[in-house]
Design a protein that fits this description.
Chain A contains 5 helices and 7 strands, in the order H-E-E-H-E-H-E-E-E-H-E-H. By secondary structure, chain A is of the alpha/beta class. In chain A, a hairpin with a 4-residue loop joins strand 4 and strand 5. Chain B has a 3-stranded antiparallel sheet with strand order 1-2-3. A 3-stranded antiparallel sheet of chain B has the order 6-7-8. The chains are: A alpha/beta, B alpha+beta.
C-alpha cells in the first residue's frame, strides 16, 4: 500500500484543481486521513476507485461528525422544533453555531486486500451551507449511510439518488445527532383533547405551544 | 391481510409497465413474520411479479450512537450486545478491538484465544439459526428450525456458564476478557464441537440435496460480484457471489493467522449459494474451534495495564472491524480525550447488505422476496440501531 503522502501527491498530479490535505491522527493506530475540497470531492473519489494501483473499490463506512465550535455556553437550549435548516439560520445561534459538519469515508481495496484510506469532506458551516457532494455514484454502499447522515446530522448530499430520511420518520423536525440538539422528554407526544401528557412537559422541552393550547382549551390546567 | 393491503404507500411515483395491468402497491411488514423483526418493504407488484421494492427502516431505532456518546466507553459495552442480538460476543469483540486500537492496548494471548473460540461458536449458532429461519420462511414449518435451535441451545449453555448470560453476554473488556473460563468448560466445549460436526452431516443430509429447497433457491436472487463489491455487501453474502474477501484473512486480527482454514466461495451468487456458503463456513469454524480448544495457552485474560475506571484514551480516532457472522462489523471512534467518545459510529453489516435487496428481488415472484430476504440474514437491532 502506498503511503498517504504518495496518494496525496498522485491525486494532485492527476487532478491539479483538487484541494487535498493530510489530517494527522494522534491515536496509536495512526490512521491518518485526507481532507478533500468539496468541489473536487467526486472527481477525487472516482480517481481513487479507478486508479489501477489503488483500486479502492469498497467503501466500508461513512461517519457523520458534528464539529461544533466553540462548545455551547452553559444553559444553551435549542428547541427541537426550531432545528429546521432555514429556521435555524434565520434565528441565528450566534457564535456558538460556527464549526462544520463532516462526512468521513473509510475506503478499502477488495482487489488488493488493503486499506483503509480515510477521506473527509467538510461543510462550510453548520447552519445554512451544509451541502457536500454525494459519493454514492462512485460507491453504492454510501447510499443508505449518506441517507442516514442526512437524517441524523442534516448534511445535504448533492447528487444522491434518493435523499430521504432513513431512520427517523417522515415529517420529523431536527437532526438528533447534532451536538446542540436537545433531547425532548417524549417525542411521540401529540396533543389530544383528552390527554394529560402535555401539561407534564416544561416549555424547555419543546412543547410550549402544546401547553399553551391545552391551557386555553382546558380550564383545569 | 386486508389491513396490510390498505396501508398506503407514499414513496412511489406511478409505475409504468409495458402491457401491465393494474399495479398493486403492497407494504410487507413491519409486522410480518417473514421480515424477521420490524422491517417494512414497500413493493409494487404486477400480478405476482415484483416491479419495485423499497426497504423502510427505523422501527427499532433508538439512536444507539447518541446514547453511547453520552456515557463512558465501558458503559457502551453491554449496549453493543443489543445491536445484533444473536451475536453479542462478536459485537463485543468489534467494539473492544476498536477501543484497543484507539488506546493502544495489548490483549494477552489467552484472551485472544478465548475471543476466537467464543466468536466462532457465535458464528456457528448464528448460521444455524439463519438456515432454520430460511427454511421456516420457505414453509418447512418447524422441523429444521427446531433441530437448529436444539444445537444452538448447547452453544448458549456454554455462553451462559462462561458469561452468565445466554444472549446478552457483555463479556469482553478493553484489553482482554472479563473472566477466565470456568473449570470443565473446555471439555464441555470440545464435546459440543464434536457433536456439531455430526449434526452438520445430518442437517446437510436433510437439506442440501432436498428437491424443494433447491427449487425454491437455485437461480433466485442472483447477485453479481461487481454489484456486491460496489454496494459494500460483506460476509457470507459477498462470498456467495464469488468474491474472496474475509476480514479474518485480510486483517488477520486477533490470532486468526495461527489457524488453517479456508474461505468457501460461491459460483452463482444465488440464494442456494448463500445457504451452502453458511454450511461450509460452519464446518471451517468447527475446524478453527478444534485447534483453538486444543492450543489454548495458559496465562492472564486481561492486560494488567488496562484501566476499567477512569478510562480516557488520548485524542484521536480509530476504525476497527471484524468479520462478524453477518459481514464486516466496524466501529469508528473519535476521542477528544474525555471519558466519553466524541463520536461513536457502528457500521452495521446487515444494513449495507440490504442495499442490493431491490436488484435481487426485481422481476421475481412475491414468494421469492421472502426467501431472498431470509438469505440476506438481517437483524433489525443492528439495521436500525
Amino acid at each position: 500500500m502506498e503511503t498517504l503522502e504518495e496518494i496525496c501527491f498522485r491525486i494532485k498530479t492527476a487532478l491539479p484543481a483538487a484541494r487535498v490535505e493530510i489530517i494527522p491522527n494522534a491515536s496509536p493506530c495512526g490512521q491518518r486521513s485526507l481532507l478533500l475540497g468539496r468541489e473536487q470531492g467526486l472527481a477525487v473519489a472516482t480517481f481513487l476507485r479507478d486508479d489501477p494501483q489503488l483500486r479502492l473499490d469498497y467503501c466500508s463506512n461513512v461517519t457523520g461528525v458534528d464539529r461544533l465550535e466553540p462548545s455551547l455556553p452553559q444553559g444553551f437550549v435549542q428547541s427541537p422544533s426550531s432545528a429546521g435548516l432555514k429556521k435555524e439560520a434565520g434565528e441565528g445561534l450566534g457564535e456558538s453555531g460556527t464549526g462544520c459538519l463532516e462526512a468521513v469515508y473509510h475506503l478499502f481495496s477488495m482487489a488488493h486486500k488493503n486499506g483503509p484510506v480515510v477521506l473527509r469532506l467538510r461543510t462550510e458551516n453548520r447552519l445554512a451551507a451544509v451541502r457536500l457532494p454525494s459519493l454514492t455514484p462512485v460507491w453504492r454502499s454510501c447510499e443508505f449511510q449518506e441517507r442516514e447522515i442526512f437524517d441524523l446530522f442534516g448534511i445535504v448530499f448533492d447528487g444522491h439518488p434518493d435523499l430521504r430520511r432513513l431512520l427517523m420518520w417522515e415529517g420529523f423536525q431536527g437532526f438528533p445527532m447534532r451536538r446542540d440538539y436537545l433531547v425532548a422528554d417524549d417525542f411521540e407526544c401529540e396533543p389530544t383533547p383528552h390527554g394529560d401528557v402535555p401539561k407534564r412537559m416544561s416549555p424547555r422541552q419543546g412543547c410550549a405551544e402544546v401547553i399553551q393550547k391545552t391551557a386555553t382549551a382546558d380550564p383545569r390546567v | 391481510m386486508s389491513a396490510i393491503l390498505e396501508t398506503p404507500v407514499r414513496a412511489f411515483e406511478s409505475v409504468s409497465g409495458a402491457g401491465a395491468g393494474e399495479m398493486l402497491e403492497l407494504a410487507i411488514g413491519p409486522h410480518h413474520p417473514s421480515t424477521h423483526g420490524v422491517f417494512r418493504m414497500d413493493v409494487v407488484l404486477d400480478g405476482e411479479r415484483v416491479r419495485r421494492l423499497k426497504p423502510v427502516f427505523g422501527y427499532l431505532h433508538r439512536n444507539h450512537e447518541k446514547i453511547a456518546e453520552g456515557q463512558s466507553y465501558l458503559s457502551s459495552m453491554p449496549y453493543t450486545d443489543r445491536l445484533d442480538y444473536f451475536c453479542s460476543l462478536t459485537n463485543n469483540w468489534a467494539y473492544a478491538l476498536t477501543v484497543e486500537k484507539l488506546a493502544g492496548l495489548q490483549v494477552p494471548e489467552r484472551a485472544e484465544y478465548i475471543r476466537v473460540i467464543t466468536a466462532e461458536l457465535t458464528r456457528v449458532q448464528n448460521h444455524l439459526c439463519l438456515i432454520g429461519f430460511l427454511l421456516q420462511d420457505m414453509g418447512a414449518s418447524g422441523t429444521p428450525l427446531m433441530y437448529a435451535f436444539r444445537e444452538r441451545e448447547k452453544i448458549l449453555d456454554l455462553f451462559e456458564s462462561l458469561t452468565g448470560a445466554r444472549m446478552m453476554c457483555n463479556y469482553m473488556r478493553f484489553g482482554g476478557c472479563r473472566v477466565d473460563l470456568p473449570t470443565g468448560w473446555m471439555e464441555e466445549a470440545q464435546q459440543v464441537v464434536q457433536g456439531l460436526t455430526r449434526f452438520l452431516d445430518e442437517f446437510e443430509a436433510l437439506l442440501t440435496g432436498n428437491e424443494i429447497l433447491m427449487a425454491r433457491t437455485m437461480h433466485i436472487g442472483v447477485l453479481s460480484s461487481a454489484a456486491a463489491v460496489n454496494a459494500g455487501v460483506t460476509g457470507p453474502m459477498l462470498r456467495a457471489s464469488g468474491v474472496n474477501y474475509d476480514v479474518r484473512k485480510v486483517d488477520r486480527y486477533g490470532v486468526y493467522d495461527r489457524f488453517d482454514f479456508r474461505i468457501p466461495l460461491g459460483d452463482h451468487g444465488d440464494t442456494y449459494d448463500r445457504y451452502l456458503i453458511r454450511v461450509l463456513e460452519m464446518r471451517e469454524s468447527l475446524k478453527i474451534l478444534r485447534v483453538a480448544l486444543r492450543d489454548l495457552p495458559e496465562g492472564p485474560v486481561m492486560d494488567p495495564k488496562a484501566r476499567l475506571r477512569g478510562f480516557r484514551p488520548k485524542a484521536g480516532e480509530a476504525y476497527g472491524r471484524i468479520e462478524a457472522p453477518k459481514g464486516e462489523l466496524g466501529f469508528h471512534l473519535i476521542s477528544d480525550g474525555s471519558p466519553n467518545p466524541f463520536r461513536y459510529r457502528v457500521r452495521p453489516p446487515s444494513l449495507m447488505n440490504l442495499t442490493v435487496l431491490e436488484e435481487m428481488c426485481m422481476g421475481r415472484m412475491l414468494a421469492d422476496v421472502v426467501v431472498i430476504l431470509g438469505s440476506v440474514d438481517i437483524v433489525l437491532g443492528e439495521v436500525d440501531r
